[in-house]
Amino acid sequence: MKKFTFCLKLIAIPAFCLLLTAFSFKDSLEEYVIFLQKSFTAHYDSSQESTVIKKYELNVTNNGFCRYKRYFNNGKIEYFAFKLAKFKDLDYYGTTTSGLLYLRTKNDDVIVQTYNDKKGDVDSMGTCVVIPLKNIEAEDLNQIRENLTKITKP
């Protein structure tokens, strides 16, 4: 009987642990992306560039990319894109009312393209994307950093 009880314990304990881990929820990339898109959209400050920029597009995609496109009044277009997995750190320069968010990557991982520029179309690589923000608190910035950091971890 002792042998049977011992074998039962050997089976029951790992099965119970497996059952507990099966119901633990892990945040998905999609949840992080949705949060980042909502944060960037809610806090984007178009008034910082309104004299020069006609419109902009700022997207965080489900396949893990951040894309920022600016359309200038003179017809020039600037496009920035980087894979969120290459995120290194962020810096914010400004106040809670208005400032600039620098999203930095590990290396030259930001694709920078210009179109319709007087100097010609240029394709290059950069290390950061600068996004104008408004009405953002330190807690919001910490949550943005936390979500970006979670995306970079395997």
Automatic annotation (TrEMBL):
Domain of life: Bacteria
Signal sequence coordinates: 1-26
Keywords: Signal
Name recorded for this polypeptide: Uncharacterized protein
Species this chain originates from: Pedobacter rhodius
